[in-house]
Write a structure and sequence with these properties.
Structural class: alpha/beta
Largest sheet: 7 strands, mixed
Distance between the termini: 52 Å
Strand order of the largest sheet: 2-8-7-6-5-3-4
Radius of gyration: 22 Å
Shape: globular
Helix content: 40-55%
């Protein structure tokens, strides 16, 4: 038949590497293999259910017939609750009309790109990072990225970014970072903030300023002495140029509930509201009302967060300690100590080693495939997040891991590594 022509944007949009990997994993599971699947940036609701009080509020909201259209920028009750939480938890003052609620963080990020970036303009972001390449493509913009280093915990530095900011419209930052679970130190973020302030002072009033998207969807999930920093607290003059991304998807294990929000300068939030109004990317009204009522119950929120964080940290530390033990036994593996989110950054530096049947592992793909077939360990290589395909670093997500899985997976990994020479 006829070759159907589609838009250049659609034709050249690349699929998710993670979804591709998921296909291989499903096949192995279908064959009856035991797979430790730590690839998904999600939670197993049987292990990590949403807060019981939130679930009850959602059910009640449907019983109360909260099923008509929500307000275009989100229900006032929820925006009020968000404003209060931001003020009390982060010390940030944002009015209800500077907050936009949407169906999770993704529509919010899409709207930020659409509201700020014209076709042909440049978006600057670090890699590894989540989906900035795709959002740039959807916006017909040009991507400019810096490949970050393990010695900086894969967070971008001012030295790496500075040469590239001259023609950028948007600097996309995320902390805690997906895929690494690492965070900006205060000094790292302050230096970047000062660079943005300097750059905006240099631009003429008729030029578009350099905006900062600050994705902090994981910010409540910090461990040990990790502290979350943000641009507006560190440098209040950045308030006019910073748009935050947040929501309950990660902090409440509520990825499928679809309640996210942005906050920032009213003019930009208004434009984003118009864009999402036409897309219809609202969060369902019942879920919004339920989230507002749940957030007002501060004791329940704190109780949930503290046990949830404790369980996530237990798994992250378990994997980290297991990997460090294997490293001390001479295996070519490593990991960065857990800081935040639900991810552990792990290194499998196995290229050049030979399998039992004498086959040499020569590419990252072959290493990934070996870990999957021999150890039953499924993890995502950093190249799925934009780094060079040669990178030996991986994202391990613990949102679907039971406590027993941790020791079993390390045991299985140890056996698979022992077979390499």
């Amino acid at each position: 038949g006829r070759d159907l022509k589609v838009s250049k944007m659609a034709e050249n949009l690349i699929g998710s590497e993670i979804i591709k990997l998921a296909g291989e994993i499903r096949e192995l599971i279908a064959k009856g293999e035991r797979i430790y699947n730590f690839t998904i940036g999600d939670f197993d609701p049987k292990i990590f259910p949403i807060p019981a009080e939130l679930k009850a509020e959602i059910i009640k909201a449907y019983q109360d017939d909260e099923t008509n259209y929500p307000a275009a920028d989100g229900m006032a009750e929820l925006r009020k609750a968000v404003a209060k939480q931001i003020r009390e938890w982060q010390g940030l003052e944002y009015a209800e009309n500077e907050i936009l609620v949407a169906g999770g963080a993704r529509p919010v990020i899409y709207a930020i790109y659409q509201a700020l970036v014209d076709p042909g303009e440049t978006v600057l972001f670090p890699v590894p990072s989540w989906n900035n390449n795709h959002y740039t493509h959807l916006s017909h913009a040009v991507q400019s990225f810096v490949e970050t280093k393990p010695e900086n915990n894969f967070m971008p530095t001012v030295e790496e970014l500075r040469p590239l900011i001259g023609n950028a419209t948007l600097l996309a930052l995320c902390s805690p970072l997906n895929p690494t679970g690492t965070v900006f130190s205060k000094a790292q973020l302050e230096a970047i903030c000062d660079m943005v302030i300097e750059e905006n002072a240099r631009r003429t009033p008729d030029q578009k300023p350099l905006y900062v998207m600050y994705d902090q969807i994981y910010w409540t999930l910090t461990y040990g002495d990790t502290v979350h920093f943000d641009p507006v607290n560190l440098r209040p003059e950045l308030r006019d140029y910073t748009i935050f991304v947040d929501g309950i998807s990660k902090s409440m294990a509520a990825t499928g509930v679809r309640v996210g929000w942005a906050f920032g300068p009213k003019k930009i939030i208004d434009k984003m509201k118009s864009i999402l109004g036409h897309v219809g990317a609202w969060s369902p009204k019942a879920e919004q009302m339920a989230t507002a009522r749940f957030m007002a119950n501060d004791d329940a929120v704190q109780a949930y967060l503290s046990q949830f964080k404790q369980q996530i940290e237990q798994r992250l530390r378990g994997f980290y300690n297991g990997i460090q033990t294997l490293k001390s036994e001479g295996f070519r593996v490593d990991a960065i100590a857990p800081m935040a989110a639900i991810y552990l950054t792990v290194q499998f530096d196995l290229k050049g080693l030979k399998t039992v049947d004498g086959k040499e592992l020569s590419t990252t793909e072959e290493v990934t495939s070996y870990l999957l077939s021999e150890a039953g360990l499924a993890v995502v290589p950093f190249y799925a997040f934009g780094t060079a395909r040669t990178s030996s670093w991986y994202r391990l997500s613990v949102g679907t891991a039971s406590v027993a899985d941790v020791n079993e997976a390390i045991e299985s990994l140890s056996k698979a590594l022992s077979k390499l020479s």
